[in-house]
């Protein structure tokens, strides 16, 4: 790929209860000697604003925006709503650039807030902390005592502290003792699981119901009967079907009409999601991510020459985080579902074309800065990133149904 290509990653930021606080949008770029990175970033910003709109990428949640330093000026900042909280991420390198410091003063006067990235408790970090409302700490770089002292020191100054680069739920649980305000990453999709754990009665019943819904032998009449047994599920399903994100040509008043416009397979997908949304202790960020994964996989199938199998790709994405819902190894959850061998291999071992797309998702969500060379069936990282953002915007809207 050309080193001047630029792509965007998006990561959620959660609170101690795994409630969604904000999204970070980070622009990744390959620098080259000719300095093409900044013009490429500006062009990408314009395209996102025209195609999606930055507000669609984060909904009503605050946005933490990580831009190249030369773009930290009023005329270059992506546009959000007038009352939208935008946190511009800065690093200590801005102290070496008087022009950037002048721009920061102007941005502050315009109501923007700053977030200090990679705080390390040195003289430069301390100087910038005086103008920031938030800081991020890469937790793996410090020991317990250092973390305790830094968080306490920053809190005493009225600064919110974000634990950055969290890998899994176990690390999240450990870090809560340090009283961070927020936690960044897709750690909630990497749950603490124990092999051999017995599912509770409710979760076992749900898994059995999901197996019935996803069985290739379950036709509309039987699916309709399953839905009708739960009035709340029927109501939620109709609301989901009629949501603008689904682009229905008419308002659907009956499940039977939903089948006519969506098809049995897509109707099953929504039933899956709504059943999962009824589970206890499931953060909304997990539901949004499941939808993002489903839509992303569908887009990749369409663009990678697998349009005829796009329903299988969509279902794989939707079910890719089942271990996080059930706190059980994915191999055990998938074994209880009547899925094809192709889907089994994709979900458990990330093998085959669908598994390859799931691997790309994992890279984008957990190691976006290493995704520069990622590709799938001729689709490169720039388009892959656009698909990821489009899927995120779609999921953000659909989950509100």
Characterise the protein shown here.
The chain is α/β, with parallel strands linked by helices. It has two domains: 180 residues, EAL domain (TIM Barrel, Alpha-Beta Barrel); 198 residues, no CATH class. 49% of the residues lie in helices and 11% in strands. The protein is built from 18 helices and eight strands. It has an eight-stranded mixed β-barrel, surrounded by five helices. α11 runs parallel beside α13, α12 crosses α18 and α16 packs parallel to α17. The longest helix has 20 residues. It is globular. The two termini are 39 Å apart. About 1% of the residues have low confidence.
Question: Keywords, please?
Answer:
alpha/beta, 2 domains, 11% strand
């Amino acid at each position: 790929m050309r080193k001047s290509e630029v792509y965007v990653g998006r990561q959620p930021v959660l609170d101690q209860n795994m409630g969604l606080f904000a999204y970070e949008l980070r622009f990744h770029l390959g620098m080259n000697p000719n300095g093409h990175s900044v013009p490429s970033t500006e062009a990408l910003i314009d395209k996102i604003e025209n195609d999606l709109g930055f507000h669609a990428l984060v909904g009503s949640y605050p946005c933490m925006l990580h831009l190249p330093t030369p773009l930290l000026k009023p005329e270059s900042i992506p546009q959000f709503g007038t009352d939208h909280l935008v946190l511009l991420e800065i690093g200590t390198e801005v102290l070496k650039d008087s022009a950037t410091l002048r721009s920061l003063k102007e941005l502050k006067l315009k109501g923007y807030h700053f977030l200090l990235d990679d705080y390390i408790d040195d003289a430069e970090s301390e100087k910038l902390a005086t103008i920031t409302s938030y800081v991020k700490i890469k937790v793996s770089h410090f020991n317990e005592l250092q973390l305790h002292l830094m968080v306490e020191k920053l809190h005493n100054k009225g600064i919110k502290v974000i634990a950055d680069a969290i890998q899994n739920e176990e690390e999240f649980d450990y870090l809560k003792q340090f009283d961070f305000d927020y936690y960044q990453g897709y750690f909630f999709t990497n749950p603490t699981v124990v092999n051999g754990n017995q599912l509770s009665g409710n979760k076992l019943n749900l898994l059995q119901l999901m197996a019935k819904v996803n069985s290739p032998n379950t036709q509309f009449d039987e699916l309709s009967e399953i839905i009708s047994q739960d009035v709340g599920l029927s109501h939620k399903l109709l609301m989901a079907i009629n949501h603008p994100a689904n682009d229905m040509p008419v308002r659907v008043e009956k499940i039977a009409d939903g089948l006519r416009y969506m098809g049995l397979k897509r109707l099953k997908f929504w039933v899956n999601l709504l059943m999962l949304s009824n589970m206890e202790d499931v953060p909304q960020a997990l539901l949004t991510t499941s939808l993002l994964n489903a839509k992303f996989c569908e887009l990749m199938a369409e663009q990678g020459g697998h349009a005829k199998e796009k329903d299988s790709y969509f279902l794989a994405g939707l079910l890719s985080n089942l271990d996080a819902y059930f706190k059980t190894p994915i191999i055990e959850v998938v074994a209880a579902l009547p899925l094809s061998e192709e889907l089994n291999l994709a979900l458990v071992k990330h093998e085959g074309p669908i598994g390859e797309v799931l691997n790309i998702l994992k890279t984008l969500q957990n190691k976006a800065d290493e995704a520069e060379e990622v590709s799938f069936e001729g689709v490169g990282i720039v388009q892959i990133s656009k698909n990821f953002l489009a899927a995120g915007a779609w999921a953000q809207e659909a989950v509100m149904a």
